[in-house]
């Protein structure tokens, strides 16, 4: 069994209105060193071992549903875990 | 002409759409639940606004995989008119029936007000009853209507005259003031403003009615054999 951590963020080329608002807010809190904030989504998937290649399955899931690749990028980390 | 209003869990403009077709346009219309497999009996498909599946993950992302969407794709391929308004537009984008994607409004606020649109292409089956360049007032009501597409897609939209409506005073940050686009084949239109909320002067305006009249007129021209 695997625990897969998926991170979805807006593409670099796409303006992130939420991130921009948070950046401004941090500046008003006197953190001028923060030059940019990008807001994204974090998802945890539990995936059972199967005959299919795990990376292939995750990439399919991400590009079909979890991320909209027109405006978003995704990356993921895999941890193997022992079922309780 | 017989219309289907597709109803997803969380749709909330389905009744307005039904009212516009039945009472204002005087055509046949039925509600169709999202798990319906066939739309063969319908001549036109309407995807209403709302918050399908609570906008979970992304607007339209879950609805796009509901059973009825396969039938919508089939109807699109068959050349039937398909109109997606607001959340309906977002679903069409997620389904890949129209190019691009929606971002949060630039202001991060939900915007609900009448806006002025410019008809930039009156040569479509959805806009033929308008005049080229005409200004119409249609209400918007959305939090994610900030249209985006890459430069290549934008060039293609322009080249093929696929931009049908633009905002006169951009309310949400949409690229090139885009309010509504059509697919290359000219039978799938997505728009953020709600024409179904502007079909009667009692509601504050009737500028949306011509959009529905355009659909019926073009369908009649193509399908009714002249005696």
TrEMBL record, chain A:
Keyword vocabulary terms for this entry: ATP-binding, Cytoplasm, Ligase, Nucleotide-binding, Purine biosynthesis
GO BP: 'de novo' IMP biosynthetic process
Chief place where the protein resides: cytoplasm
Superkingdom assignment: Bacteria
EC numbers on record: 6.3.5.3
Coiled-coil ranges (or none): none
Pfam families recorded: PurS
Cellular component GO terms, alphabetical: cytoplasm
Family: Belongs to the PurS family.
HAMAP family: PurS
Protein's name according to its UniProt entry: Phosphoribosylformylglycinamidine synthase subunit PurS
TrEMBL record, chain B:
Reactions the enzyme catalyzes: N(2)-formyl-N(1)-(5-phospho-beta-D-ribosyl)glycinamide + L-glutamine + ATP + H2O = 2-formamido-N(1)-(5-O-phospho-beta-D-ribosyl)acetamidine + L-glutamate + ADP + phosphate + H(+); L-glutamine + H2O = L-glutamate + NH4(+)
Listed GO CC annotations: cytoplasm
Molecular function terms, GO-annotated: ATP binding; glutaminase activity; phosphoribosylformylglycinamidine synthase activity
Active site residues of this protein: 86 (nucleophile), 194, 196
SMART domains recorded: GATase_5
Principal subcellular localisation of the protein: cytoplasm
Database matches in InterPro entries: Class_I_gatase-like, PRibForGlyAmidine_synth_PurQ
Pathway in which the depicted protein is active: Purine metabolism; IMP biosynthesis via de novo pathway; 5-amino-1-(5-phospho-D-ribosyl)imidazole from N(2)-formyl-N(1)-(5-phospho-D-ribosyl)glycinamide: step 1/2
EC nos: 6.3.5.3, 3.5.1.2
Coiled-coil positions: none
Domain of life (superkingdom): Bacteria
Subcellular location: Cytoplasm
Keywords: ATP-binding, Cytoplasm, Glutamine amidotransferase, Hydrolase, Ligase, Nucleotide-binding, Purine biosynthesis
GO biological process: 'de novo' IMP biosynthetic process
Assembly behavior: Part of the FGAM synthase complex composed of 1 PurL, 1 PurQ and 2 PurS subunits.
Purpose: Part of the phosphoribosylformylglycinamidine synthase complex involved in the purines biosynthetic pathway. Catalyzes the ATP-dependent conversion of formylglycinamide ribonucleotide (FGAR) and glutamine to yield formylglycinamidine ribonucleotide (FGAM) and glutamate. The FGAM synthase complex is composed of three subunits. PurQ produces an ammonia molecule by converting glutamine to glutamate. PurL transfers the ammonia molecule to FGAR to form FGAM in an ATP-dependent manner.
Listed name of the protein: Phosphoribosylformylglycinamidine synthase subunit PurQ
Organism: Neobacillus niacini
Upper classification of the organism: Bacteria, Bacillati, Bacillota, Bacilli, Bacillales
Gene that this sequence comes from: purQ
